[in-house]
Amino acid sequence: MRKSYYFLILIIGCIAEKEKQVFQYTPFSQSVVHLIFANNPADTLSIEASAVTNIPLGYNESKTLSVDKAGEYYVDIEIDRPAKSFLKIGDNQYNIFVFPEDTTHINIATVEGGFELSFSGRGKDISKYYLDKKKSLGYTDIRYPLNKSLSSKSTYKLLKQSADSVINRELLFLEKFKSSNRLPEWFLDYEHSEIVYSGAGYKTSMPKANEMMKYFKDTLSNDYYDFLSHIEVDNSKAILSSHYFWFLDEYFARSLPVSENNQLVGFSRMNKFMSHKLNQSKEQLSGDVKEAYHKYNFSSMIKFYADSLAIDSIAKVFEISDYKELVRIAGIRSRSEMEMLNINKGDTIPEFVLSNSLDSLISIRSFQDIILYLNFWATWCGPCIQNIPELNKLIAQYEKNSHVNFLNICLDCERDKWLTSIAKYKLKGVNLIAEGNWNSKLRSYFNIKGIPHYTIINKGNILFENFTDKAPMVQGKLDSLLTPHYSKL
Q1: Which residues of 194-217 are buried (b: 16+ CB within 10 A; e: fewer)?
Q2: Which of 154, 299, 348, 360 has the largest CB neighbor count within 10 A?
Q3: Are 289 and 234 in contact (CB under 8 A)?
Q4: Is residue 412 assigned to a domain?
Q5: Does residue 294 fall inside a structural domain?
Q6: 123, 153, 171 — which closes off a domain?
Q7: Judging by DSSP bridges, how do beta strands 92-98 and 83-89 pair with one another?
Q8: Using CA atoms, how far apart are residues 396 and 210, in angstroms rounded to an integer?
Q9: Per-residue confidence band for 310, with pLDDT thresholds at 50, 70 and 90
């Protein structure tokens, strides 16, 4: 039987008496969405449901369902707690509220210009709130209006004002809705947390994001973070909110120097960040919040480990005792997606074929007579972009050496943005893009958990070192492999 992680949230007021409402974190629980189409849609509709989970951190999606006639349909998603989810019907997106091991019922009528939804079941009043909210505000995801104001003309002051405007607009709608509609008290705490902490997380994250991505050129003022004095960091009423957990990540990361973090890549960077967050959370969180946040981080870490002794050691560091069932479930789910992660030093790299900027296909086998340095990056990755000048300097030092080459492989990128970034940053080396299934295959081959990610491949397409150093620190390793072919230029 699956083990649940219980957190006492608050007391709900009922008409006759007050009763305690206990919610539980139950990772990988099934939630069913029952769709009842009253009439035939004009065209075949694609139906999907999705939700963000906290334990472990993830984004779970249902299988895609096609609907072309009236009738009853079902989709199911895996969730970890009662939470807001996204429902996509054709080109339309809605928010609904779902519960673990429960069914949400939605009646859908096709009307001119879209669909008319009505709800029944446990969360019907909450889902109606979300539906009215979308009609009033015009969106289902608060990140859309928060990011809308970001441009090269932005300033920190304008960004804070814009974020506060979005937050206030959402809070006003919540107040207006609850004045004439029944909503549970626990949900009011949840929704208030989703709104407030999304804005606080956005404002907290922006200075570091701008330092890496250079969105705009404004200077950070000394009083920028004053808004944090009004934010409750240790808040048990926010324990179900994914935006609250995101805010905690950004809040704790604020004291980690960017320069120190940027010295590391891949798994080393993640470990550094996790250790820093853990130290901060032990000091500033308590009770159920501390336990939930530590499980949120722990359950995101264990998928990288197969050694039970290592996992036990990590659990002690996170001060978690009841984790065996979570390890079993998370381990099965995560490692089942990593069946090909068996490439060790000395193994031959499986063949892969990627497109270059001329749309020609390039095989890894065409480089089997030389040493390769692979730079896995993305156009949206701040640390990747930040290291391009050093990488270009390193590549320039080997331009006349025929025994080594540099492959820049862009993952999860749009082709137009990829070509624009190559030109903008004058990225040297062989530029390739992973399209289609090659994204997931390369992540699997090289155990890529984060980018930038660097790998050295020896002659014969033999793996020399995965998770290797970035430029310029990697130069010594390349020089040692090139001897006796290498000579100072």
Answers
A1: bbbbbbbbbbbbbbbebebeebbe
A2: 299
A3: yes
A4: yes
A5: no
A6: 123
A7: antiparallel
A8: 28
A9: confident
The DSSP bridge partners found for residue 453 are 376
Kindly state whether residue 244 falls inside one of the protein's structural domains. Answer: no
For residue 369 the two structure tokens come to: 């007579």
Residue that finishes a domain, picked among 101, 123, 145: 123
pTM of the entire predicted model:
0.71
Q: What is the pLDDT of residues 55-94, one digit of tens each?
A: 888 888 898 999 999 999 999 999 999 999 999 999 899 9
**pLDDT-based confidence at residue 457 (cuts at 50, 70, 90):** very high
Tally of domains in the chain: 2
CATH number of the domain encompassing residue 10? 2.60.40
**How would you write the chain as a 3-class SS string?**
CCCCEEEEEEEEECCCCEEEEEEEECCCEEEEEEEEECCCCCCCEEEEEEEEEECCEEEEECCCEEECCCEEEEEEEEECCCEEEEEEECCEEEEEEECCCEEEEEEEEEECCEEEEEEECCCHHHHHHHHHHHHHHCCCCCHHHHHHCCCCCCCHHHHHHHHHHHHHHHHHHHHHHHHHCCCCHHHHHHHHHHHHHHHHHHHHHHHHHHHHHCCCCCCCCCCHHHHHHHCCCCCHHHCCCHHHHHHHHHHHHCCCCHHHHCCCCHHHHHHHHHHHHHHHHHHHCCHHHHHHHHHHHHHHHHHHCCCHHHHHHHHHHCCCCCCHHHHHHHHHHHHCCCCCCCCCCCCECCCCEEEECCCCEEEHHHHCCCEEEEEEECCCCHHHHHCHHHHHHHHHHCCCCCCEEEEEEECCCCHHHHHHHHHHHCCCCEEEECCCCHHHHHHHHCCCCCCCEEEEEECCCEEEEECCCCCCCCHHHHHHHHCCCCCCC
Burial 336-369 (b: 16+ CB within 10 A, else e): eeeeeeebeeeeebeebebbeeeeeebebeebbe
Two tokens at 453?
């990610």
Q: Is 100 exposed, middle or buried (CB count within 10 Å of its CB: 0-12, 13-18, 19+)?
A: buried
Q: Is 183 exposed, middle or buried (0-12, 13-18, 19+ CB in 10 A)?
A: middle
Query: 386 to each of 241, 321, 377, 379, how far by Cα in Å?
Result: 32, 40, 11, 11
**Domain hosting residue 358, numbered range:** 353-482
Return mean pLDDT, the chain. 86
Query: What integer pLDDT is reported at residue 412 of this predicted model?
Result: 80
Whether 86 contacts 140, CB under 8 Å: yes
Is residue 216, in this structure, part of any structural domain at all? no
| Tokens matching residue 72 | 């009853």
